[in-house]
Amino acid sequence: MNSLHKKFWQFWDKEKSLTILLFILIAQIFIIIPVGEQTVFGKTVSLIFYMLLLIAGIFLFINNTTWRIVLIIVLALPIVAGSDVFFRSVPLEVSNTLAIAFYCVFLGVIVLLRTFSKGEFTLHRIQGGIVVYLLISLVFAMLYQSVYLLEGEAAFKGLNLSDRKEFMYFSLVTLTTVGYGDITPAIVITRSLANFEALIGQLYPAILIAGIVTKVLESSKK
User: Taking burial as the number of CB atoms within 10 A of a residue's CB, which of 62, 77, 160, 173 is the most buried?
Assistant: First the structure.
């Protein structure tokens, strides 16, 4: 039992945890959110995945077992309380959405630091770069939803409901600069956010590829 417990902690201290984080994000963004969160079951499943994302992130950048447990409890409470699984409240929903967005930003910074830290550049580190790209799309989806909850239907044209899958779709379309035009930002703040996300969508892959090439060349020379 102690051996399994030790192996579990050692696993999360390694770069393989970046791969697990990537799988969690892919499942959340491309399966769980598109299915919808309008039913109690859908909301519960989505909440579980956000908790998994939270736990995976904490294991990634905190090594102390006690601090891991404390942070999981402290950060999980507002996420659970702010979710509308039990009851619906716009202020709580906005605070919960923003809390997830800020956590994803923090997690993205930690993953980037780990991805480009000293050492051999492995496949797991490349997957870490993809994790950050997906986190960017999730952050903006949360910001769009928060603005919609506060401003209503005036925030977007072609959008008449606050289902998170719509904001996730719009965020990915904007980040990849596809721009189908079926949903468009209609007020200053949503237009600014969309412009900023599109700019990141252009610059991040170029900077990431340059960084990966540099690290690979350094590793091959050594």
Answer: 173
DSSP labels, 175-190: HTT---SSSEE-SHHH
Written as six digits, the tokens of 28 are 């959340």
* Mean pLDDT over the full length of the chain: 79
DSSP state for residue 13 in the 8-state scheme: T
pLDDT of residue 21: 83
> Predicted confidence band at 27 (pLDDT cuts at 50, 70, 90)?
confident
Asked if 105 and 140 count as a contact pair (C-beta separation under 8 A), the reply is no
The phi and psi torsions of 5 (rounded to 5 degrees) equal -60, -40
Contact (CB, 8 A) for 100 and 52: no
Cα angle vertex 75, ends 72, 80, to 5°?
A: 105
Give 123-168 as a DSSP string: HHHHHHHHHHHHHHHHHHHHHHHHHHHHHGGGGEES-----HHHHH
For 9, residues 6+ apart whose C-beta sits below 8 A from its C-beta are 65
CATH code for the domain in which residue 215 is found: 1.10.287.70
